[in-house]
Design brief:
2 strands; 2 helices
Length: 66
């Protein structure tokens, strides 16, 4: 028996874009206010935000495709 195919729902896509957008806004905030302690970690923060924007919708917002 084959598993039914699933895809990310529209809500999941919106959640994904909001996570990624919030991450970008946070990094812009760090750069504009020159928060020296966090600035070296900007690439790691962006990577974590990118990973979350992919994983969260794939885990929580799947729906079957007919």
């Amino acid at each position: 028996m084959a598993k039914p195919q699933t895809e990310v729902s529209v809500k999941g896509r919106l959640v994904s874009m909001s996570i990624l957008g919030s991450t970008v806004v946070f990094i812009i905030f760090l750069e504009n206010f020159r928060v020296a302690a966090w600035l070296p970690y900007a690439l790691h923060i962006f990577g974590a935000g990118l990973a979350l924007s992919i994983l969260v919708p794939m885990i929580f917002f799947r729906r079957p495709v007919e």
